Amino acid sequence: MDREQLGDFLRRRREALQPEDVGLARSPRRRTPGLRREEVAQLATMSTDYLNRLEQGRSPQPSEQMLTALARALRLSDDERGHLFRLAGHPAPERTGGSSHVAPAMLRILDRLRDTPAQVVNEFGETLVQTAPAKALLGDATALTGLARVTVYRWFAQPASRDVYARDDHDERARAFVAELRSAYVRYGDDSLAGRVVRALDDESPEFRALWAEHEVREKHPATKRFVHPEIGTFTLDCQTLLDTDTGQRLLVFTATPGTPDAEKLALLTVIGTQSFVETR
């Protein structure tokens, strides 16, 4: 681990970014070049003191999870992310399907959707980043660890996760999740995250085993989904998908037809999501 070079790299990348680059508002009295340490720390969900020690070369070796969060907060490219990992004494992450690194361009789009339920998922259905309204709608999946970050795993291993969908749609949701998992499994093989999910659910869920045996394949969910929220009730949203052909990652954006009760409920959800985000960060 090269602490001096790591600190210098983090500092220079922080100073090269502007608030607008990461979806933050610029204060009229702002004098600091680039982002402040507390802003990067907030984006990476770490303490400002820890980031300060990293930049000053006084910290222990950061974990790969921490480096991943920093790479996303600093909007690093794949090359820059690999450099960051090597400076910290870790091997550079492989550039394979199902990567957890979200491209800066995708993050810029998400920054402009902050008042809309939207999230980025990889080809395995692992949630990588969410807007505050998406967390209010679907729960904060980015705070989870291990296989629980993958939607299909939560669906069968943690049945309470199904409560966000209308009960009458559960069978359709289950089949869609299993079919998408099979597509990823065939593409990336048994040694991939998809393979680990399949093995875990084969052990844990008879329901999953039965659906898996049907060998149904599909790569897309139905575009219209019914959700249930404890404060808002049941409402229907359209889910549009933007595919990043370089990474296979998908940006999911949830909208409602203007002028409908669903649109009114979505607007209320946006308020709830913003309040929750302010309280927890």
From TrEMBL:
Domain HTH cro/C1-type: 34-81
Molecular function terms from GO: DNA binding
InterPro entries: Cro/C1-type_HTH, Lambda_DNA-bd_dom_sf, MLTR_LBD
Protein name (record): Helix-turn-helix protein
The species this protein was found in: Microbacterium ginsengisoli
